[in-house]
Amino acid sequence: MDLIENLRFPRFFINGGDIKINDIVIIGGADAKHICTVLRMKAGGKAVLCNEDGFDYPSEIVSAAGSRVEFKVLLKRANDCEPKMYLRLFQCVPKGEKLDFIVQKATELGASEIIPVISKRCVSRPDNKNSKILRLQKIAEQAAKQSGRGKIPIVGEFTGFNAALKLYRSGNLGIIFYENGGMRINDTVKNAVKRRPDTNYGSLSADIFVGSEGGFEPAEIAAATEAGLIPANLGRLILRAETAPIAAISILMNLMGEI
Fold it and tell me: For position 45, which CATH number holds?
């Protein structure tokens, strides 16, 4: 299977150890039901298995019966779709179902981790946070399958703004997007690379903070700057809460040579 053909086949993530060519891998549960009843795949059908070890395993169905599907591993190949840059999105929670959309698109664009943040201007403050996280993690999994990812992004727990700042890794490129100031994102990244002579675009990891409706309060920007984050903007236009993170990730991935 070439890469284009590989991406045409359904993708399923599995929890397994080392996988070798000719191994038999068993898939059960919801994925097995999806294979049999939705995709209507039978013996001889092909799919790509992935256990998040950096490789894809194109495989062929040996048998399929409702709650159990057996695959024979045909090949082992490096996953060429997974971005090299580790990008964490700290997303302040927007209203309604917008966070679902953000998680889906951030996954498709290559984010490695998405942490929902409760900032002062967040209107949405979910009560049943555990069920919401499970839902978002499932959305990330489905988006990772669709986009050919080698790993499923982690959806973290809902976190207060100050606690989120403490999660920022000082060695990473840290950006907080602020519509009332800051450098252009392109200049922010270029300056970060210049300050680190041992760093290049391909080796950067990034922690980015994006606000909900209404953005951030000045005190939050001050606290973020004190923590080491760099205020940046996405141009003169004011973007919607669900548009800003997608624009930010797209620009960063382009600068890193991933898009």
Answer: 2.40.240.20
Tokens representing residue 72 in the block: 């024979």
pLDDT at residue 199, as a whole number: 52
Residue 42 is part of which domain span? 3-78
**Same domain? 244 vs 123:** yes
Record the pTM. 0.90
Q: Which residues pair with 70 in a beta bridge?
A: 26, 63
Helix (H) or strand (E) holding 25: strand 24-28
Same domain, 54 and 148: no
Helix (DSSP H) and strand (DSSP E) numbers for the chain: 8, 14
Structure tokens at 177: 């997007």
Beta strands 87-92 and 206-210: pairing type?
parallel
Q: What is the largest CA-CA distance in the chain?
A: 60
At 32-46, the pLDDT tens digits run: 999 999 999 999 999
CB-CB contact of 10 with 18 (8 Å): no
Beta bridge partners of 210: 91
